[in-house]
């Protein structure tokens, strides 16, 4: 049965059989060359009977030598062909055995099993590198499919929740027409609907980041962060944490709009999860010790478990609700996931670490620029 998308091909010889025929043909060709050289030498032998003066012995002529050489050469060529076929079949099987393992692993992967690995032993040759590359591809596919399944399950759950809330609110209001508070009902419906809209837009943005090309141009990281600070709504509400800004020039290659969203999401996350009275948010840009453009957003807040911090950049993972300010609505759970996707698109490194006194430190290291970049 032909797989979908693959055209039907005529049956052909196997690689092992072709290699066997090639080995045998090479041996026969080499033997024929030796026989041709022998015939070339025999041309210089006179075609007449010669006698040796001392002892009267018989010296064979060219015809006598050919009568002996031709049958022996034919037998020798047949023997070489047989050796070539048998030895070539064995050698080809031994050389192609790793390809059989790779083919078996590919067949398992085609059936949906991505946990199998070839683990080819032996020297570092072309087949070993092919097997290692295939194992690496299987590992990445397995990780990607696991993330996709987890993302789909989380997305289904998160999108089902607001719909369930809306349904419950409407059923309660319909069951008690006299006692329902229309204004409160409309407020709750709008709040739930707004959350659904934010979540869907975030999901669409994640999908675009994964499939669209990145527009790359020189961008002043300090300018992008300065604009994000000026337009951040989370830092303008009453009771927002104190903002400490230290922006030094740092040029990166990338998309200014996406970099602005990266900075805005980090600022919003720092403001929402800042329980401390008189809390602070520190924002810094500049070059680190390795001359990499760097953005650091640090905030006070409740102590965080390092194990939890390591998962915050995954979709729909949220810190404990106790770390969120009571006057802030719950986010979509995709803010730091979008930050991580934008960082990956810019070949940047996102590091999330808990502060010893509580809170979070988010650091984004961008690739080093050329010597013409601002120092």
Automatic annotation (TrEMBL):
The protein's UniProt keywords, in alphabetical order, are:
Kinase, Membrane, Phosphoprotein, Transferase, Transmembrane, Transmembrane helix, Two-component regulatory system
Histidine kinase domain sequence ranges: 154-370
Q: What EC number is given for this enzyme?
A: 2.7.13.3
Q: Which Pfam families match?
A: HAMP, HATPase_c, HisKA
Q: Which reaction does it catalyse?
A: ATP + protein L-histidine = ADP + protein N-phospho-L-histidine
Q: What is its main location?
A: membrane
Top-rank taxon, per record: Bacteria
Which InterPro entries does the record cross-reference, listed alphabetically?
HAMP_dom (IPR003660), HATPase_C_sf (IPR036890), HATPase_dom (IPR003594), His_kinase_dom (IPR005467), HisK_dim/P_dom (IPR003661), HisK_dim/P_sf (IPR036097), TCS_sensor_his_kinase (IPR050428)
Subcellular localization: Cell membrane
Membrane as a keyword of this entry, yes or no, is: yes
Mention one GO molecular function: kinase activity
Where do the HAMP domain residues begin and end? Answer: 93-146
Residue ranges spanning the membrane: these are 21-45, 65-92
UniProt cross-references to PANTHER family, sorted A to Z: SENSOR HISTIDINE KINASE TRCS, SENSOR HISTIDINE KINASE YKOH
Protein name per Swiss-Prot or TrEMBL: histidine kinase
What organism is recorded for this protein?
Promicromonospora kroppenstedtii
Classification from the root reads: Bacteria, Bacillati, Actinomycetota, Actinomycetes, Micrococcales
């Amino acid at each position: 049965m032909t797989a979908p998308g693959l055209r039907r091909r005529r049956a052909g010889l196997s690689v092992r059989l072709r290699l066997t025929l090639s080995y045998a043909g090479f041996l026969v060709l080499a033997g024929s060359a030796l026989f041709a050289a022998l015939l070339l030498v025999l041309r210089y032998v006179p075609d007449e009977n010669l006698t040796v003066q001392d002892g009267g012995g018989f010296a064979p002529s060219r015809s006598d030598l050919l009568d002996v050489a031709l049958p022996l050469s034919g037998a020798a060529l047949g023997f070489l062909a047989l050796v070539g076929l048998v030895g070539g079949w064995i050698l080809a099987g031994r050389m192609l055995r790793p390809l059989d393992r790779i083919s078996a692993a590919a067949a398992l992967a085609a059936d949906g099993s991505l946990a199998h690995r070839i683990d080819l032993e032996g020297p570092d040759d072309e087949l070993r590198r092919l097997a290692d590359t295939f194992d690496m591809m299987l590992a990445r596919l397995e990780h990607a499919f696991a993330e996709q399944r987890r993302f789909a399950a989380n997305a289904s759950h998160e999108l089902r929740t607001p719909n369930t809330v809306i349904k419950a609110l409407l059923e309660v209001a319909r069951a008690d027409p006299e006692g329902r508070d229309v204004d409160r009902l409309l407020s709750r419906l709008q709040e739930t609907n707004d959350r659904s809209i934010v979540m869907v837009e975030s999901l669409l943005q994640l999908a675009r980041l994964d499939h669209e090309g990145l527009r790359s141009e020189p961008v002043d990281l300090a300018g992008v962060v300065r604009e994000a600070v000026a337009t951040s709504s989370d830092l303008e509400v009453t009771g927002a944490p104190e903002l400490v800004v230290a922006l030094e020039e740092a040029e990166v290659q990338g998309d200014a709009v996406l970099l602005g969203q990266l900075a805005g999401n980090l600022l919003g996350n720092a403001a929402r999860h800042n329980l401390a009275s008189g809390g602070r948010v520190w924002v810094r840009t500049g070059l680190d010790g390795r001359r990499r453009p760097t953005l650091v957003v640090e905030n006070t807040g409740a102590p965080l478990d390092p194990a939890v911090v390591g998962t915050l950049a995954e979709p729909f993972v949220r810190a404990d609700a106790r770390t969120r300010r009571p006057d802030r609505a719950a986010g979509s759970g995709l803010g730091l996931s979008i930050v991580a996707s934008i960082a990956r698109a810019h070949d940047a490194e996102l590091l999330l670490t808990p502060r010893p006194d509580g809170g979070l430190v988010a650091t984004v290291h961008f690739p080093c620029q050329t010597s013409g970049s601002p120092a």
